[in-house]
Amino acid sequence: MLFNSFEFAIFLPIVFCIYWFVVNHKLRLQNLFIVGVSYLFYGWWDWRFLLLIALTTVCSYLSGTLIEKYRDKRHAKIIAAANIILNLLILCLFKYFNFFSENLIRIFRFFGTELDWVTLDILLPVGISFYTFQALSYTIDVYKRKIEPTHDPISFFAFVSFFPQLVAGPIERATQLLPQFYVKRQFDYVKAVDGMRQILWGLFKKIVVADNCAVAVNEIFANYLNQSGSTLLLGAILFTFQIYGDFSGYSDMAIGTARLFGINLMRNFNYPYFSRDIAEFWRRWHISLTTWFRDYIYIPLGGSRGTKWQSFRNTMVIFLVSGLWHGANWTFIIWGAYHALLFAPLLLLGRNRKYTGVVAENTAFPSFRESIQMVTTFALAVIGWIIFRAENIRQAFDYIGHMFNRSLFSMPVGGKKALLFATILMMVEWIGRRNQFALQCLPHNRIVRWAIYYAVVTAIALAGGQQATFIYFQF
Length: 475
Known about the structure:
Elements: H1 6-21, H2 27-43, H3 49-69, H4 73-95, H5 97-110, H6 128-143, H7 153-161, H8 174-177, H9 189-222, H10 229-260, H11 278-284, H12 287-301, H13 308-326, H14 330-348, H15 368-389, H16 393-403, H17 416-431, H18 446-463
Helix pairs in contact: 2-7, 3-4, 3-6, 3-7, 4-6, 9-10, 9-17, 9-18, 10-15, 10-16, 12-13, 13-14, 14-15, 15-16
């Protein structure tokens, strides 16, 4: 069930009304209802997916209980490791088995040996990377005693399967989300209105910006050998806005929907295309994933506590794992390595934490220096997104090679409508860059405020592109 679908437009109001007017008297019933509608929401794609998420949930719940029971370090470590390995094996089976199998065949073929290996014709469960990482955070945090194991299975099932962020995040931590299911939620009109604004802005990003960009991007990438350099550049820029509008739009809708039910989810995007260097970009892009890798991989590896070389090694590991997390394709791994190499000079010079505040915080416009920094960072991100979007490494480098020729300075073909909407998106987000999302703080004047609402709704209704599934559903 897609957030931008007719089915969800019916589903959400019904669930909202039952949640607040029928089952709101008892916390346990409220949580049980969340589990039921979440499983309905997830099973809408394929009911067989429910078996996997149920298995992940049960194993992770039991791991917490057993870790508490066997508190001596040796047994607790074995239990935690067993659950982590089990969940990662399930993830690898569905997401990476064919990738590793095919590459193993190529390696042996290179050395003159033919293997009679197998590949699996299996469907990748939607959002498996997201809910697996969320469940793993619980086991790890219980083992490290950052959170007490829960004895409420219904709350735990609600934590893993909470439908707004189930299939594409944000990837929540047990320490932040699970306790919210322990306390009875009260309807908050201000929070609900704020949630509706964020949903509205998320729909604009997805339907008006991302879906319009997708039409042009698909056409350009499908015929990139016959396009001018300027058109290829335009296609790369439009994909840069497509993936942002698509993914941050989903996150906005997820966070806004959660607020309708009295639940607070973590922020997942913080205006990444206004970043002044790559380090700042990665603090602002897919925050829930980057902080997950930081806390559960980077810091345990030693983080930045060792030598510069050790810090670089740990950073490279994080970016390579991040690339692999995105999919079973060498393009994602190379994309991760590319960003690691961009990040390395900042790390080695100790400049990776230089920009942590809002750009042009006290002025309406950036300085000349900040403008150059943002344009440069954006350009570097665009190159990376070409690698990310390509079907294979050869296509990525062919695309980049064909882009940088004399025709780069000609007039591009197509994509003008999508570029216009992307420009509007950036203008609105620049104005609202100090807020959690662009439409959070609107003018107090009622007429102006409702005029903005009507303008956004009209754009969604009349200017939306062809409905497309969310890019990150495949991850």
